[in-house]
Write a structure and sequence with these properties.
By secondary structure, the chain is of the alpha+beta class. Helix content is 31%, strand content 18%. Helix 2 (125-136) packs parallel to helix 7 and helix 3 (165-173) packs antiparallel against helix 4 (177-196). The longest helix has 20 residues, at 177-196. It is globular.
Length: 695
């Protein structure tokens, strides 16, 4: 919802605007010109910038744009505003991403006299989405995150880009228009995400097993309604699959239900799947490439207010160096997710809660539990919840639970939640489901709008709420990953409607904006990499393995991994692998290269070992033991980039090991004795890598 009134929160919701239309105080509805380009952003360009004209009217002086400054124009009564040229294009490249030290200097350089237009507190999906939207509209944008990008909820999703099948069922059964609107919006945003981050997201077929003909009809009709809501955004129409077709797609599907009913087939439908942390990091770097000042590990330790009591900045501390500084802005956006109320109470301790937490636990299982290309939804468990079983990076992830939880920065899966997922899977799989197969387990906290009722969170609408407190701080809470872009668009619309930001801005640019890595990505990229690095090796004379390139050993699995994680930037990773002799896998059973560590440290603000294992790669989420084995080598490479001492390097390894124990397992799945885990021997990283630029 957009600027939805919320009883009892103590904020001013007196100005309410419609989405996508900027209504500035004292003005009529206005259209924002796209053609003339401001001088603030180096990324907006047009091949032939000209003055826009009004259809059916002459270009009078009052409708003429000043060169280089887009103006707000009223549409003529004879026609609508159109541009003589196409809208400006965005050229986001990794070459434009500043270093973290440069970003910190920019943040600290702001002042009361020269503030940013917008300061965003929080670097998760909501905050990073707002940063991209604001900066590409030509607003001077800053974003700070107290930990790493996606360190909280945004890294612990079900990895689905979806409208929400269960939300649609609730909409029908509860006659809930809010649930229906959420599904409709999410289905259309799904299409945009799959296009704008094509390397990180893909369509995924999902099977709904049916053990009675009534279930075939019920789920079949429901998923056709799902297709109908998607309209032209439908990926592939849903359809019935007989028993043979169902088992050919998912051989482990049980032929009998727990109560002895035989399988009647399944309903196949398509949703999207994505790499959540990689998308979050890509949003942060895309915002940086567009000109935003973004920084992780930058804590907001207090808020700055002006004489009128409005929040106009933040007192910050760099958690890496300990340096403190102030960031000034005309408007502050609170996008701190589950911790949004902590930021609000920094302004006024009496603020009532606007967010409630719901835990979601997932587990990772070996690939033989399911299919590498098809997922499964269990639409109704014994307690009425929904469980997904989905392929993800050569593994199977299953979840999620939905339980009220006290908000904390380090939620941990309970054994009861893990047992619930395993027991549910055992009812629908012919595979023997055992806790010994659990490779990793994690828990995230969903920030839901506070209903004020407490108790069960399953029926709370997953919509977002955008509101402004009486101190002038704009708050963005709730929502889901799929709708991050529209949520950001509406948030920046609300910021503009406050009247505190410049008028000379562009309309929203993110609907078709290709994020970093997506512009030149194609599904053939995996094949191209494989041809360049693998096919020549197949033609080597038998018995001549010494002729293989000793610096880069890329097989088809690695080619698929690199193209899916970095898109058209994967050649930068491969160049580093060759130049720095970092072309080996970190651990034998995962396609993650040593070169990725140095690339993410140089180009993606990877500051710690924890950052890499959980948010630049997904090792911690996929396989705790293998991840632990890679820690020493990861720390060596990061030490060469960041200039760590030996004591600092060892401390990073221990911190990462504690992180695995406390976040990805309910039990002692990680080595806790004094003996080091088994690791392979790797060559030292050349000192020159410290100066290597991700070019």
């Amino acid at each position: 919802m957009f600027l939805a009134p919320h009883k009892g929160l103590g904020y001013d919701a007196s100005f309410v605007t419609k989405p996508y239309v900027a209504q500035l105080p004292g003005c009529q509805r206005k259209l924002i010109c796209r053609a003339s380009l401001p001088s603030r952003s180096p990324l907006l360009h047009s091949s032939n910038p000209t003055t826009p004209t009004l259809v059916g009217s002459s270009n009078s002086s009052r409708n003429t744009l000043r060169p280089g400054r887009p103006q707000l124009l009223k549409p003529s009564h004879k026609g609508v505003l159109v541009s003589a040229t196409s809208a400006p294009t965005m050229d986001l490249t990794m070459d434009r991403v500043p270093s973290r030290s440069q970003q910190l200097d920019r943040l600290a350089a702001s002042s009361k006299e020269d503030p940013f237009d917008v300061l965003i507190i929080g670097g998760g999906s909501s905050g990073a989405g707002c940063a991209v939207d604001a900066q590409t509209r030509n607003l001077r944008t800053a974003m700070i995150e107290r930990e790493d990008f996606a360190s909280g909820t945004s890294s612990k999703s079900t990895k689905l880009v979806h409208g929400g099948v269960r939300y649609l069922e609730k909409a029908v059964l509860q006659l809930s228009l809010d649930q229906l609107k959420l599904v409709y919006e999410a289905l259309h945003e799904r299409d945009r995400l799959l296009s704008n981050a094509a390397h990180l997201a893909r369509p995924l077929p999902i099977l709904t097993p049916c053990y009675s003909w009534w279930e075939v009809i019920y789920y079949g009709v429901g998923l056709k309604f799902y297709d109908l809501l998607a309209g032209s955004s439908t990926l592939v129409p849903s359809k019935y699959m007989n028993i043979l077709e169902s088992l050919s797609r998912l051989p482990t599907m049980s032929k009998y239900s727990e109560d002895g009913r035989s399988l009647k087939g399944s309903i196949l439908y398509y949703d999207g799947q994505f790499n959540d942390t990689r998308l979050n990091v890509t949003l942060a770097t895309s915002a940086a490439a567009a000109g935003a000042a973004v920084s992780n590990y930058t804590d907001c330790v207090g808020l700055i207010k002006n004489e009128a009591g409005k929040v106009v900045g933040a007192h910050c501390r760099d958690r890496i160096s300990g340096k403190e500084f102030d960031v000034h802005a005309k408007l502050v956006i609170n996008a701190a997710g589950p911790f949004a109320d902590d930021v609000r109470r920094a302004s006024d301790p009496s603020k009532k809660p606007s967010v409630q937490g719901a835990s979601g636990t997932h587990i990772t299982l070996p690939d033989f539990y399911g299919s590498s290309k098809n997922g499964m939804i269990i639409p109704k468990t014994k307690d009425g919840r929904v469980v997904f079983m989905l392929p993800f990076q050569h593994h199977i992830i299953a979840g999620t639970t939905d339980t009220p939880i006290q908000i904390t920065s380090r939620p941990r899966s309970t054994q009861a939640e893990i047992d619930f997922i395993l027991n549910t899977l055992s009812d629908y799989l012919d595979v023997r489901v055992t806790p010994k197969d659990v490779l990793s387990a994690w828990c995230g906290i969903r920030p839901l709008p506070n209903s004020g009722k407490g108790g069960n969170t399953q029926n709370v609408v997953r919509d977002h709420v955008i509101f402004m407190d009486d101190d002038g701080m704009l708050n963005v809470t709730g929502g889901k990953w799929t709708t991050y872009r529209s949520m950001a668009e509406q948030a920046i619309d609300a910021a503009l409607a406050s009247g505190r930001l410049p008028n000379d801005v562009l309309p929203c640019q993110t609907r078709d904006l290709k994020l970093l890595g997506a512009k030149n990505y194609s599904y053939q990229m995996k094949a191209n990499i494989s041809q360049d690095y693998q096919v020549p090796y197949r033609n080597l004379p038998l018995g001549k393995p010494e002729l293989r390139d000793p610096e880069v050993d890329v097989d088809t699995e690695i080619a698929a991994h690199l193209s899916a994680c970095y898109g058209d930037n994967c050649d930068r990773v491969l160049s580093l692998a060759r130049e720095q002799q970092l072309g080996k896998r970190l651990v034998p059973n995962h396609p993650v290269l040593e070169a990725e560590v140095i690339y993410t440290a140089q180009a993606e603000y990877c500051m710690t070992v924890e950052d890499f294992i959980s948010r630049r790669s997904r090792l911690a989420f996929l396989d705790v033991r293998s991840c632990e084995a890679a820690l020493p080598r990861i720390s060596e490479i990061l030490a060469s980039v960041h200039g760590w001492s030996e004591d600092k390097r060892k401390a990073e390894v221990e911190a990462a090991r504690d992180f695995l124990i406390n976040n990805f397992t309910p039990g002692p799945m990680v080595h806790t004795d004094s003996s080091p885990p088994p690791t392979a021997k790797f060559p030292k990283v050349p000192d020159s890598s410290r100066e290597q630029v991700a070019a």
